[in-house]
User: Fold this.
Amino acid sequence: EKKELEQYIGKPSVTRDGVQVEIVANIGKPEDAEKVLQYDGEGVGLFRTEFLFMDRTSMPTEEEQFEAYKKVAIAMNGKPVIIRTLDIGGDKEIPYMGLEKDENPFLGYRAIRFCLDRKEDIYKPQLRALLRASAFGNIRIMVPLVTCIEEYREARGLVEELKAELDEAGIAYKKDIQVGIMVETAAASLIADIFAREVDFFSIGTNDLTQYTMSVDRGNKKVSYLYSTFNPAVLRSIRHIIACGREAGIMVVMCGEAASDPMMIPLLLAFGLNEFSMSASAILRARKMVTEYSVQELQAVADKAMSFATTAEVEQYMKEFVESGT
Ligand code: PEP
Ligand code: MG
Assistant:
């Protein structure tokens, strides 16, 4: 299979009927960029910056972060690199941050909520490091776990404020740097039309979107039977987010696990997803799948999939569709 997939290196990710999408990678460390290039990823769709903060006893300085972000930007050589600002709390703990344990960590003090509360010591240094690194490549900033427009405006406002400071100091950065959001809460999905008017791009985080749509802790085995991206509610949410993004003319990426699921890819193509972000090793297989489909022909498949009432029926139908190879 490896040899067969290697022939997709250097090929565009384009469907039989000429719809071009991008297949990019999720990474956790700057060094991972090598693997992305090896598998011919068209960029980085998600750099989880938490990993820079983990396994150490103090926060990485602005300088250390700058070096890490710059390294990825340079390695990717002009290809887009979406870097997500610190997404801690929930399942990701960092002892030295002095975070108390919330009673409901996934519904608590985390990600953008935490960062906006710690602007001076945590968020601004990270944003400044990102801006400075953006002078060395095609960096885009992504804000996690947004639930309301005020959070985005506040984060965006900080970016603009820091840009002005850099201008003043004569420090280079990408003037038109994009600032987008993860759409991974039920609230953000429901008002995706409103977000689409202000944000530069959407990235659908299906790992959390499924959790927050189904009210199911993503790590709890006892209720994991409810946790499926093929649940009709989750699928409707995904379809809605993509439709809102497309209507506003902004790019829609998916960086949750579903983006590389062979049974999900046909549906995402039919919904009009622009960019699929996944682990580097999954890229070529996904590209092969994309080249075998026609978006137009997939419309009927998506319509049928969306007509079912249960997760089991959707999964069964998509399994049969994928296995039939048509
Ligand atoms: C997601 O929620 O789908 C996602 C990509 O982010 P993480 O898994 O890091 O929460
Ligand atoms: Mg998430």
Observations:
- The first helix runs from residue 2 to 6.
- The chain has a mean pLDDT of 97.
- The beta strands are 22-27, 44-48, 80-84, 138-143, 179-183, 201-204, 251-254, 275-278.
